[in-house]
């Protein structure tokens, strides 16, 4: 039967002065801070400027993406214009989100690269943009470019996050892909 | 008699519409105001599209309240496995209805003269006005307690116990604050109080301490942050309405916002001059215009006080439970008692 239990003293116990102890003064100070932010932002909204630091996502994207941001995936292509992917499924194996699906086809006219993808789908509703697929690729066939995929939709019916990379395939847009002079596809 | 009934019916409809409409607007205000004061944009995705066109009305996210209502109505009506049926179903109504009832005694305008008969713009003119308000508001906490007890859940029970003790400790201080106003005005009738204020000074200038106490205890009565111990989601899932789903849960949420409207209306009536605006009586407007203007002023004042309460809600962190109790019993109650004593003494000396 202990009458009064002693509370544990912490080494960094907050020291409250008289100002903090009289709670109402701190309330007034807090209200002053939040009210200042509120009216400042409201003034911005009313005068037609933006009073928020967040972005209005699908309509406006943030301006400060990193210069080496890893965004949308692209497939690279060989000098002869074929897709560089040999559909070895290493990226799909490495993918922690299991969002890559490859359907391969055989093309024995090119004896060096007999396998090629027929469909190369990435489910962007599951992709976590980790870049493991890029690391896993032995052929440098998949890369990530700077811009982010434009996925959001207002309508549930239109939303379709599974994207066939072969359909949106323009590796020439990737400036880092170097083609020898005279060998451009 | 028929005309009387019609006018009174219209007043009742206005009162209910005022409460419901303002409560709905406050759900929007809470979202938007909290967003603006924390550098965000806030809910703005709900829209109404004109059929067969691509014209969308967003109205700054005002339709989110409608979407919420529709969603809550269509949700599954889930109930816990073992629960007290009667109390469980009764609790949301007990939480929401008293708040609506109390608004009946709040005067939301001066007098309306129709065909030579004058009506007070108030649903019920009671001589015991403010006492009825305190009494009926007490029933609201009963709904909270019943909800927590009947849903057979430890979190709910904990929330209900907290709600009960919090109600008790803060209603005393609230009663003292109101009593000092009653002593000041010399009447219990809210309409008389507003007339007193329009003739001399607003209550906030006469009794600033009572105003602070009343607003604080009102926020505590509403179970809003910083006093939202009964439903603090970091400790008790959702507190007393953990086990409630669909529109029953919606009724609890609605009762919270109705509570904001109500305590704002009470604060306006008791301390901020009610429907009164200085200089309105001398403007020489026709009677109907003055009545309409008074109703508008009352709505505006109520809205602004509600906004202030939302500002407080998004500014302050939650109390710890012992702090809450200590704040109520050791700080607010003595202060309210001192205020009441001082008021009584001053009035007694002035009268003698």
Any chance you could write out the topology, listing elements then pairs?
The complex is a heterodimer of chains A (185) and B (352).
Chain A: H1 18-21, H2 23-46, E1 73-75, H3 90-94, E2 100-106, E3 115-123, H4 132-136, E4 142-144, E5 162-164
Antiparallel strand pairs in A: 1-4, 2-3, 3-5
Chain B: H1 2-37, E1 48-49, E2 56-57, H2 64-74, H3 85-102, E3 111-114, E4 117-120, H4 129-150, H5 154-185, H6 190-199, H7 203-206, H8 208-221, H9 246-271, H10 287-313, H11 321-351
Antiparallel strand pairs in B: 1-2, 3-4
Strand order of the largest sheet of chain A: 2-3-5
Major sheet details of chain B: 2 strands, antiparallel
N- to C-terminal distance of chain A = 88 Å
Poorly predicted runs of 5 or more residues of chain B: none
Per DSSP, what share of the residues of chain B sits in E-state strands of 2 or more residues?
A: under 5%
Radius of gyration of chain A: 28 Å
Assembly status: heterodimer
Rounded to an integer, what's the Rg of chain B over CA atoms?
Answer: 21 Å
So what's the overall shape of chain A?
A: elongated
Helix content of chain B: 55-70%
Mean pLDDT of chain B: 84
The helix tally of chain A amounts to: 4
**Beginning-to-end CA distance, first to last residue of chain B:** 46 Å
Order of helices and strands of chain B: HEEHHEEHHHHHHHH
Decide which structural class fits the backbone of chain B: mainly alpha
The coarse overall form of chain B would be globular
Total strand segments of chain A:
5
> Could you give the count of β-strands of chain B?
4
Portion of residues in beta strands of chain A equals 5-15%
* Major sheet description of chain A: 3 strands, antiparallel
H/E element sequence of chain A: HHEHEEHEE
What can be said about this structure in brief?
By secondary structure, chain A is of the alpha+beta class. Chain A has helices at residues 18-21, 23-46, 90-94, 132-136; strands spanning 73-75, 100-106, 115-123, 142-144, 162-164.
